[in-house]
Amino acid sequence: MKTAAFFDLDKTILARSSSFAFARPFYKGRLIGRSDVIRSAYAQFVFLASGADHDQMESMRTYMSKLVTGWDVDKVKQIVAETLDEIVDPMVYEEAIKLIEDHKAEGHDVVIISSSGTDVVEPIGERLGADIAIGTQVAVEDGHYTGEILFYAYGEGKAEAMLALATEHGYDLTKCYAYTDSQTDLPMLELVGNPVAVNPDTELRKIATEHDWPVLDFQTPVALRKTIDTKQAAAAGAGVALGAVALGIAWYARRRFTRS
Predict the structure, then answer these.
(1) pLDDT tens digits along 88-109
(2) CA–CA separation, 36 vs 48, rounded Å?
(3) 52 or 12, higher pLDDT
(4) String of b and e for 208-217 (b: at least 16 CB within 10 Å)?
(5) N or C, which terminus of the chain has less Cβ within 10 Å?
(6) In 3D, which of 169, 153, 140, 150 has the Cα closest to residue 69?
(7) Number of H helices, E strands in the chain
(8) Strand partners, 4
């Protein structure tokens, strides 16, 4: 059976929230207003200062659902593609990049699961050379987001995704790894044989200590282009195709990054 390393994205691989990081490009693209930029900046501060609890994550779900309703999907993808390097490059943890490289060297699949929208998570995952990237999926109709959340990549949702992927790809979860910063991701950590707390919030640090789980504190955000051969990352993400797990769980539509 195969082994996978499951990574949360924000504060685990990235030093900031991937959702809020694109607030200014979305503003320039006239998708959001100035008040949303200010709110995003405040939410980013709270996120970095104390993490997010269950209530905050649910509030974020409601806010994001209303915010993206009516957005043109192609325009979102274009903005993300055009600004990805300038947004992501200064905030990728060097230690996370090394960890991803180590897992890939061991022949492990690298899977990113984040509560950020799939159109943000997928290109970041491809840029990092991930094998699979899963984000929150919003329904699309006539090329625009409806605001309906089909799959929320948070809490138990992440565990459901991991179980489905384990069945699809033959992962032995007892040998798999999971990395995250938040106590809201306990279902993700408890599902694998090798849970690791990365930059943990206060509650997760306490839980990790009680369970004798490893704790990693990443401190060095770097420019991705200076630490990864982008051609290799692009090759790892080649052959992108839409896919879904046919397990009776209609919880996401994702892109699969298959090694060429």
Answers:
(1) 777 899 999 999 999 999 999 9
(2) 18
(3) 12
(4) beeeebeebe
(5) C
(6) 140
(7) 11, 11
(8) 109
The whole-chain average pLDDT of the chain stands at 79
Amino acid letter, 102: D
By mean pLDDT, which of 18-22, 38-42, 68-72 is the weakest? 38-42
Distance, in Å, from the CA atom of 146 to the CA atom of 104, rounded to the nearest integer, reads 37
* Count of domains for the chain: 1
The domain that holds 101 is classified in CATH as: 3.40.50.1000
In terms of C-beta distances under 8 Å and separation of at least 24 residues, what long-range contacts does 97-106 make, across chains too? 97/128, 97/222, 97/224, 97/227, 97/228, 99/5, 99/179, 100/5, 100/7, 100/13, 100/128, 100/129, 100/130, 103/5, 103/177, 104/129, 104/236, 106/3
Catalogue the active-site residues. Answer: 8, 10
- Pairing of the two strands 194-198 and 177-180: parallel
* Pair of tokens at residue 232: 């290799």
